[in-house]
């Protein structure tokens, strides 16, 4: 029997209907994935049932896609640890950045049992921090959530990006190279469904700047991107105020208080992140040619698939 957290009846129904999950077959699927991992000398990964089942769910139980996603997940973590591999959540600089409230996952899922909603804000000084610090925070929080939060595990996330909080100096940090790496990690390697991506409080110039990023996303996700100006009524029509924080006219607590409450989550899970230091890839041990991570990105941000045996 697989050692995974039980789902509510409603979430289990969604997992079966939308993710092709067959509860009785999970042990067999996990065994097949674990057997493949044992034959990959270059991969050292977290291999508990709860972690691996999320990659199966994130790939709708396609074993080949799960293999590729796991390989890419750890390959990118090893190649770009400054962005994707947090190992010390007790570090004071990490905590100071978190307290700025640049990223937070809201406590109430959409429509009570749907996807989680997360806010991204650029309210950090570019003199002290950069876009990679924000990315590292997002990845750490989402990585923890895909294991512990059943709503994220099954229904994914809705992201709301407050462009109005970004200054010209923030835009200068969002380089094409950064975009290729971050989009590839978040969309291609994380076992997570991105249900919607809203850009709010955007000026015309800011909207044009962020539209440059859109071709980097998959065609499926491009259709889920929405630009909303300063009139948030359009947002409310899709995400009612009962699911939004106080700063945005919502009925939930403020992002400041939600951020403060999350501090104890870091404390409770610091060993999880310490363990991240032992996981990754060793390209010298990969069967066949070593993986050229930089060469994975094609012209215009297109992504070349990893070959997995």
UniProtKB/TrEMBL annotation:
Gene Ontology cellular-component terms for this entry are: membrane
CDD domains named among the record's database cross-references: SEC14 (cd00170)
The CRAL-TRIO domain extends over 129-256
Q: Which PROSITE patterns match?
A: CRAL_TRIO
Q: Name one GO molecular function term.
A: phosphatidylinositol bisphosphate binding
The family database entries (SUPFAM superfamilies) matched by this protein are listed as:
CRAL/TRIO domain, CRAL/TRIO N-terminal domain
What is an example of a Pfam family matching this protein? Answer: CRAL_TRIO
So which domain of life are we looking at?
Eukaryota
Q: What is this protein called?
A: CRAL-TRIO domain-containing protein
Organism this protein belongs to: Stomoxys calcitrans
Provide the organism lineage as a comma list. Eukaryota, Metazoa, Ecdysozoa, Arthropoda, Hexapoda
Protein encoded by which gene: 106085621
């Amino acid at each position: 029997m697989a050692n995974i957290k039980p789902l509510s009846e409603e979430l289990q129904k969604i997992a079966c209907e939308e993710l092709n999950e067959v509860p009785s077959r999970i042990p067999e699927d996990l065994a097949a994935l674990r057997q493949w991992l044992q034959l990959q000398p270059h991969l050292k990964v977290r291999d508990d049932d709860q972690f691996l089942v999320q990659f199966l769910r994130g790939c709708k139980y396609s074993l080949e896609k799960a293999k590729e996603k796991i390989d890419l997940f750890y390959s990118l973590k090893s190649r770009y640890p400054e962005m994707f591999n947090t190992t010390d959540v007790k570090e004071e600089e990490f905590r100071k950045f978190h307290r700025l409230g640049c990223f937070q996952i809201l406590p109430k899922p959409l429509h009570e049992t749907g996807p989680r909603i997360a806010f991204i804000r650029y309210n950090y000084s570019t003199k002290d921090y950069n876009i990679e610090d924000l990315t590292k925070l997002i990845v750490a929080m989402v990585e923890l959530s895909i294991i512990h939060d059943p709503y994220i595990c099954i229904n994914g996330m809705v992201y709301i990006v407050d462009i109005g909080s970004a200054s010209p100096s923030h835009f200068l940090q969002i380089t094409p190279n950064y975009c290729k790496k971050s989009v590839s990690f978040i969309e291609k390697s994380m076992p997570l469904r991105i249900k919607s991506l809203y850009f709010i409080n955007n000026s015309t110039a800011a909207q044009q700047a962020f539209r440059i990023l859109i071709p980097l996303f998959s065609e499926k996700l491009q259709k889920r991107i929405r630009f909303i100006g300063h009139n948030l009524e359009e947002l409310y029509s899709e995400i009612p105020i009962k699911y939004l924080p106080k700063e945005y006219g919502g009925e939930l607590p403020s992002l400041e208080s939600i951020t403060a409450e999350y501090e104890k989550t870091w404390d409770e899970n610091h060993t999880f992140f310490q363990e991240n230091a032992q996981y990754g890839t060793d390209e010298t041990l990969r069967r066949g040619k070593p993986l050229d991570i930089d060469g994975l990105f094609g012209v215009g941000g297109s992504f070349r698939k990893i070959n997995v045996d």
